């Protein structure tokens, strides 16, 4: 890979500092993971590569319409030299290895700009080394592009899906060189958002769509001004209605916001009853 003068060579020490500061970990051990379609090999908690060559990138920030699901995946795909058409995402679970998943203040790209690129670059180099080891050639002479590692002779190739298990046994590189912006092929491009189809077809799942067995919903009727307290309330009419489990005052000393909470089996029902 050709590099420019402004390329940033990131040492392992710098990598650890950056990832720990951003709450990001990279464990490149190989573990089998089962997806809905195929078994996949995971290059740590952030990247899984499937036998059909599709790639799953874990997203540890909340998608709230700002496009962060696509944006963070682009950072990994760029340095991984991945075929963008094969990229998919999965929401990260609540696990300390993913660090703080706070999404606020337009900070997702800023805080994850370097760590996610390092994740992609490290995985790329391990895949390249795995291919080079099988071919008995220098890894630096092999080329990664579109989820494929190409032999120096330009004829032999391995798809990433064929290499990932062997790659997981490679040592984490001591250093990785991130691309100069002039080399970007994915970052900065106007690519279709990964969540667009699900939203258009109605398949996207939002917070209000979650419905667990026995789940209750709370709606709070708050005082319209700070510091306003509940002088009195009569819950008898609302509490007697079907689906309402409890009605009680809310005393939020921290925010000086007070109100009445109505708890029931559905948000629509609770909102209606909170008017009484």
Secondary-structure element series = EHEEEEHEHEEEHEHEHEEH
- Low-pLDDT residue spans: 1-8, 15-38
CATH superfamily of the largest domain: Aldehyde oxidase/xanthine dehydrogenase, molybdopterin binding domain
Largest sheet, if any?
Answer: 5 strands, mixed
Number of DSSP strands? 13
Helix content: 25-40%
Q: Beta-sheet strand percentage? A: 15-25%
Strands in their spatial order, largest beta sheet: 2-3-4-5-6
Mean pLDDT: 80
- Please write the CATH class name of the largest domain: Alpha Beta
Structural class: alpha+beta
Structural domain tally: 2
CATH topology of the largest domain: Aldehyde Oxidoreductase, domain 4
Shape: elongated
Topology:
Layout: E1 8-11, H1 12-21, E2 32-34, E3 39-43, E4 47-49, E5 55-59, H2 68-80, E6 87-91, H3 108-135, E7 143-145, E8 148-150, E9 157-159, H4 160-167, E10 175-178, H5 196-201, E11 217-222, H6 236-239, E12 244-252, E13 257-264, H7 267-273
């Amino acid at each position: 890979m050709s590099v420019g003068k402004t390329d940033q060579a990131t040492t392992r020490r710098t990598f650890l500092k950056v990832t720990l500061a951003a709450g990001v970990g990279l464990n490149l051990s190989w573990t089998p993971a089962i997806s809905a379609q195929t078994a996949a090999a995971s290059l740590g908690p952030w990247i899984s590569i499937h036998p059909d060559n599709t790639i799953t990138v874990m997203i540890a920030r909340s998608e709230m319409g700002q496009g962060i699901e696509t944006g963070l995946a682009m950072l990994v795909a760029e340095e991984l030299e991945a075929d963008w058409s094969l990229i998919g995402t999965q929401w990260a679970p609540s696990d300390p290895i993913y660090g703080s998943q706070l999404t606020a203040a337009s900070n997702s790209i800023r805080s994850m700009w370097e760590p996610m690129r390092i994740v992609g670059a490290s995985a790329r180099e391990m895949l390249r080394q795995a291919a080079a080891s099988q071919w008995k050639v220098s890894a630096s002479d092999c080329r990664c592009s579109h989820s494929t590692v190409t032999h120096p002779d330009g004829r032999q190739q391995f798809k990433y899906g064929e290499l990932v298990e062997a790659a997981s046994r490679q040592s984490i590189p001591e250093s990785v060189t991130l691309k100069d912006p002039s080399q970007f092929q994915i970052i900065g491009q106007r690519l279709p958002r990964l969540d667009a189809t699900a939203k258009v077809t109605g398949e996207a799942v939002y917070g209000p769509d979650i419905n667990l067995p026995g789940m209750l919903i709370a709606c709070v009727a708050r005082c319209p001004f700070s510091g306003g307290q509940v002088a009195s309330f009569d819950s008898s009419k609302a509490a007697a209605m079907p689906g309402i489990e409890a009605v009680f005052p809310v005393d939020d000393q921290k925010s000086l916001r007070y109100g009445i909470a109505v708890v029931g089996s559905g948000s629509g029902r609770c909102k209606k009853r909170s008017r009484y």
